[in-house]
Amino acid sequence: MHNDAVAGDASPRVDVKIVLPAAGTIRIESARLFADPDGALCRRFVGRAFRAAEIDSAVIAGTATAEAVIPAIDLQFDATRHSACQVLEHVAAMMEAVPSCDPGVEVPSAATARDRHGAVRYHRVGGQITGWRVVSERVGAIKLENPVLYRKAVLCEAIERELMSVLGIDRYETSARDCRAKIEYDPRQVCPAQIIEILDDALANAEHPEELDRLDLDLAICTASLPVAAIAQFAMPALLPVSAALFAYSAIPSFRGAYDVLVKERRLGVDVLDTIVVMGCLATQQVFPGAILAWCLSVGRYLVRRTEDNSKKLLLGAFGKQPRHVWLVKDGAEIEMPLDRLDKGDVVAVHTGEMVPVDGIVVEGLAMIDQHALTGEALPAEKGVGDRVFASTVMVAGKIHVAVEKSGSETATAKIAQILNDSAGYKLALQHKGERLADKAVIPTLCLGGLAFATLGPPGAVAVINSDLGTGIRMAAPLAMLSTLALCAQRGVLVKDGRALDLLCEVDTVLFDKTGTLTRERPEVGRVIAANGFRPLQILRFAAAAERRFHHPVALAILQKAAEEGLRLPPTDATQYRVGYGITVGLEGRRVRIGSRRFMELEGIGLTREVEAALDEAHREGHTMVMLAVDDELGGALELRASIRPEVRGIVRGLRERGIKHIAIISGDHEAPTRKLADELGMDRYFAQVLPADKAEYVEKLQREGRKVCFVGDGINDAIALKRANVSVSLRGATSIATDTANVVFMEQSLGKLCELRDIARDLDRNVRNSWLMILGPNIACIAGVFTLGFGIGASVVTNNIAALAALANGLLPMRKVAQLEAERRHLLEMQLRHSGFLVQDRVHPGDADVMGGPPAGALAGLDGLKRLRQQWPITAD
Questions:
Q1: Using an 8 Å Cβ cutoff, are 637 and 483 in contact?
Q2: Which of 54, 108, 454, 781 is close enough to 77 for a disulfide, judged by CB 3.0 to 4.6 Å?
Q3: pTM more than 0.85
């Protein structure tokens, strides 16, 4: 209805018209205000109108009249709780109760809330104005709807790209058909208001296509064609033309696939067989078996797409989470700012319970950091000044200041996510074993079909060709691969090329690089030789005190030995570090120098006989010596030995139990220490004094002997060898993820996952083989039945597709382990939330009370609100 009470207003030239079209709706028409939803006047009006607590939503659209379409806004409220006059009064009060420069509640861009008809729909969610409407919500999960997504998959992809890297977002799913986003999150790390802000930012920054996507009705049409085909085949033959047309339409993906295989790839593939079967069914009017075939193929395609999507999200979720805001340390204060505004060299503060936001170096503080998500380490690592920390690891205890080296898309975590997103492991179409098996089955199936055509006629030929051996395996094998990749990621193993899992089953030789792989980067202290009347523990104490401020491997080895001996270190003064030579410090009134033999010679310190003898023996064994002088005489020396990783012996034993016949070591070290290590570990062969550039030649030498080689190295000087091996594994972990040439990277920088990786690869091979047998048995039996028992097209279609569905189910089995791990994680999260009080009641987000306050004191009641509304917008008509 029109409200005529404003007809006598003193401002007749104002083009604002107020209408109450229905209960709970106030329509305000104004060409100047609402013609441009992104205009300053419109945004100011919407922002201030939502300051009225009664307004739930607003729709900016045109009102059609006999003369034209007039821009208008519909303010919607709960009519059972509020009257239109009260709401109008409050809206008017909001227009004048704030300064003219105050736009009110922040209003997102109209592009984030516009539906396909051009209407812009804003909703109140807590203290925010957004295009998203909350469909349902519980603690830890929210379902949102926004019509801007309708049939625009590119917008859904933009949202998912944002969500995949947000710390606290556990699972998410978007739908361009339903215009919905379902998100599961950790309420301790992110709240619904932040989620909506992220969604609005993603939509605002995305490119909005003008054209709608084509509807994906493949599965729907295939499903609808089944009852139609059954009725036409068995009850109403008059429907056969309609059913045949539906069947032919639903088989278009098979026709398209056959064209690509024959014309573009110039080979025979399973799609060719499917096309022949479709044409045979149409020619023999067997539309019901044909409809079953089309439906099963459609289900298979749907499952592969869903599994690929879910696996990719699980992979990215395992490595790709980063916080969105950080605490920047500036002039002694901590200032919250967006992560993407950080520069190299900035210092950020990280507190207990927070995620480390950047890759960098600790410059202040001490902390225990859980690196499990990135490296797979079971126990938290202690990090102090000078230590390196990585984005996406969690602070268990303490507080540190970190100097930024890399942030955002440059961090190790972000690079892992990029590798996973672009990994060859997802490009399985022509490379995976399942595809190869399927292709090999095409020609034998065609030959059998030709024999059936000659002896049994067209129906027999179609029945035989439909019993192909590749339809199910080409879908089941990629399903198993994708599920296995996700499982590896949860185990701390980054598989950069899915084919490596296939090849790993064929490996019979493992070649280990010695330094950094079988041994740790940090050496260990062996003998401590004392001279000139000093005691060994005294020499160790002086050496540890001198090295205390440094974090290179030698210093850490000496400090660890001192800690094992329980030594208390004296304070140092006037430390002078000479790079490449040694350290000079003041200790307890003495001048202590520690470094190499050359450093001692430069300082004029002579070696004693016992130290000379120990130095020669250490050289023969492949060890090194660090000299220590006190004042002007030699105090002694410390022997540094390569430290064998504690897990190596178990790994060698486990590899032999898993069928590895030949295990070898390659090293640039001398003959004696390399031979000693090989004997100690029970290796079959060793190669000593090999230059880094020559390691690839030894890989090729083993391959020429007929061996399938897996090269395991630290990746630093092994790039060519990693490239030449059949399978390559790197232990470098997160520090080199962007440049590593290995097929597989152990994030833990430990050999502990090598046997487990072999087991996972063999489980995958076993899964694919079982799927193959599930398809092989029923289809061979069906082909035999066609020749001996008169099986027709119907029996062939049912047998073939039941076998294919069984293989698909088998291909999904690895996902059960992933789902089990995910269920355990979610159960643990719920228990933690329950203990922390999150599941008791919903929380009120900060700031809601300010936005949703009542009308200001002195606001007029009744229809005077209409006059005030018009007075706030003195816009004259042209």
A1: no
A2: 54
A3: no
